[in-house]
Design brief:
The chain is of the alpha/beta class. It has 20 helices and 25 strands. It has 4 domains: about 210 residues, Pyruvate-ferredoxin oxidoreductase, PFOR, domain III (Pyruvate-ferredoxin Oxidoreductase, domain 3), CATH 3.40.920; about 180 residues, Thiamin diphosphate (ThDP)-binding fold, Pyr/PP domains (Rossmann fold, 3-Layer(aba) Sandwich), CATH 3.40.50.970; about 70 residues, no CATH class; about 110 residues, Rossmann fold (3-Layer(aba) Sandwich), CATH 3.40.50.920. The strands form 6 sheets. The protein has a 7-stranded mixed β-sheet with strand order 1-8-7-6-3-5-4. α10 packs parallel to α11. The two termini are about 55 Å apart.
């Protein structure tokens, strides 16, 4: 049955431009169905994104998945859905009530929602009856029923069934029995919709060619691949949402591609907690391994003491922080950019850490390998600042390029170099004036290769010292090393056309910013120059950008404007130019929120 009371403007055909919002129960197998829809649209060449909103508690609680398809390539989160699929009776009333005017509602006909929201298009479908007919095994019905709405959507919106079936085969690759169980439900939903639903909505899809050469991937998987191709050999970790899948992916990849003569050429250790994980990491980095872990904000808090040890003893390793909403346990399955200061100034005392900030899976792949290089070149912990939106959601990405450059290990002295020096070297001596000392790898065959790694005060020769000048000289050298890092970290991405106002942003706000800027120019005549931060410390290009603009908006996903705080701390002479645009409800940023904030602030100028 289809009912509708919509305006004439809603009856026009809208091609390749809609947001589909699916409401189901956690643990019901909906992820497979949603990914089939996402992959099918991708296969038709339509720019698309998929964002998963799921509970942090037990199976059975509500979960939502949002797919945005847009012919212009706008794939950031959008507040209002055009199509709402209500498969969870527990939330159906709320899902219907919060739908926008003119939205399409697809739901189980026994929910009796026909009289609600007469301003929407209603498609009532007997999902329970249909699944009983096409799935004889009662135990499997709750896992297969969601495939019915895939078939219904395919028929209503003209999604190619060939692409749907290809997507099903890819999503369940190697699981032919699961494919055979889901396929009848898919076909039953399509046939029932064709026979019983009268099209009353404006949405449809048509083939495009916008995805040529692209892939769909999660950021955590991309980061894992980057670490593997970057030469990681030791992985120590403790599970924590939303970072767990990163090390799970990494272990899977290593087991596939790092076996030589039947033996593993790597070590992956699941530790008893985050403190143990980072302790093992420090030991591996000191021993010469390329070592990495992943965690989230609470894990960073527990790791801080050993992070400080590694900073001061100058031990290289990589930590990927997949940020979630805090403080405390917070909202483990929501996204945020709330660990900015926690990473930039991690640990206690005078510390400044090196951080790289990817915005896409492709950058996550590239920066993971670069982080391993920087850690060894700078002899220090390096952080990858990701977040749940990038890490656990599905993104259309450019294909990754196979790394061809050799691994960069920095200032490592081998036997031959030590022979030339006559054994005269100091582990913490600044020979080159860049703050970076030389190191040896344990096991180097030379009597002068060994040294004692200290987390207490030490001299350039690594001997113990509590003398004030030794402490101050060492801290000054570490500051010089941080200055050197400014010339080595990824530079910002800048679009400077000489406008009075600029905008600084970073990470996964990228897609919303891109769309917002197009809207600001088209609808409001406002033009902004852009600076996307890609690393800390801030490079000279960031300072130049601030110097050129009268006012600069800093857009970020946290309450306190932490990136603005960091810019103020590092570049205080530009503080009067900085204006915060903050979003912190745990959901990904939307372009509309940015547009509204900028328009209001520009009116005040």
């Amino acid at each position: 049955m289809a009912t509708a009371e919509v305006s004439e403007t809603e009856t026009r055909t809208i091609v390749n431009d809609f947001v589909l919002h699916v409401a189901t129960a956690n643990g019901s197998g909906s992820q497979t169905s949603n990914m089939v829809l996402l992959r099918a649209l991708f296969g038709m060449g339509i720019p698309v994104s998929g964002k998963n909103l799921f509970p942090s508690n037990i199976q059975g609680l509500p979960t939502w998945f949002t797919i945005r398809a847009n012919k212009n390539g706008w794939i950031s989160r959008k507040q209002d859905a055009d199509v709402v699929v209500c498969m969870n009776p527990e939330t159906s009333d709320e899902d219907v009530e919060t739908a926008r005017q003119g939205a399409v509602l697809i739901y189980e006909d026994s929910l009796n929602l026909a009289d609600k929201r007469p301003d929407c298009v209603h498609y009532a479908v007997p999902f329970k009856k249909l699944i009983a007919e096409c799935c004889p095994d009662m135990r499997l019905r709750k896992l297969v029923i969601n495939m019915l709405y895939v078939g219904v959507c395919a028929q209503l919106f003209e999604i190619d069934m060939g692409e749907i079936k290809n997507a099903l085969s890819k999503q369940l690759a190697g699981k032919q029995k699961a494919i055979d169980i889901n396929l009848p439900a898919l076909e039953a939903g399509f046939k029932w919709a064709a026979d019983n639903l009268k099209k009353a909505d404006p949405f449809k899809v048509e083939r495009m060619n916008a995805n040529e050469g692209k892939i769909i991937i999660e950021g955590n998987a991309a980061t894992a691949l980057g670490l593997m191709f970057g030469g990681v050999t030791v992985v120590t970790w403790y599970p924590i949402t939303p970072s767990s899948s990163l090390c799970e992916y990494l272990e899977e990849y290593l087991n596939r591609f790092r076996i030589k003569d039947g033996k593993k050429t790597f070590a992956v250790v699941q530790a008893e907690d985050e403190i143990a994980a980072v302790g093992m990491l420090a030991g591996a980095g000191w021993a010469g391994a390329r070592a990495a872990t992943s965690t989230s904000g609470p894990g960073i808090s527990l790791m801080n003491e050993i992070i400080g040890l590694a900073y001061f003893a100058e031990i290289p390793f990589v930590i990927c922080d997949v940020q979630r909403t805090g403080p405390s346990t917070g909202l483990p399955t929501r996204t945020m950019q709330g660990d900015v200061l926690s990473l930039f100034y991690a640990s206690h005392g005078d510390t400044k850490q090196v951080v790289v900030i990817p915005n896409t899976p492709k950058e996550a792949f590239e920066m993971a390998g670069e982080a391993l290089n920087l850690a060894e070149e700078l002899q220090t912990p390096v952080f990858i600042m990701s977040d749940l939106d990038l890490g656990m959601n599905f993104w259309v990405s450019e294909r990754f390029e196979y790394p061809t450059e050799p691994l960069r290990r920095g200032k490592v002295l081998g036997k031959e170099e030590l022979e030339k020096l006559g054994g005269k070297w100091g582990r913490y001596a600044d020979v080159d004036g860049d703050g970076i000392p030389y190191r040896t790898i344990p096991g180097t065959e030379h009597p002068k290769a060994a040294y004692f790694t200290r987390g207490t005060g030490h001299t350039p020769q690594a001997t113990y010292s509590e003398k004030p000048h030794d402490w101050k000289n060492n801290m000054d050298r570490l500051a010089r090393k941080f200055e050197t890092a400014k010339t080595m970290v990824p530079k910002p991405e800048i679009l400077d056309n000489g406008h009075a106002a600029g905008l600084i942003y970073y990470g996964t706000t990228h897609e919303a910013i891109r769309e917002a800027c197009a809207t600001l120019e088209a609808r409001h005549g406002l033009k902004l120059d852009l600076c996307r931060l890609r690393a800390f410390p801030f490079t000279q290009e960031v300072e130049d950008f601030l110097n050129k603009h009268e006012r600069v908006y800093v857009v970020e996903l946290n309450r306190d404007g932490q990136m603005r705080m960091a810019l103020h701390a590092e570049l205080p002479h530009f503080s009067n130019k900085l204006r915060s645009v903050k979003h912190y409800d745990g959901m990904p940023l939307t372009a509309d929120e940015v547009v509204k904030a900028i328009v209001e602030r520009e009116r005040e100028v």
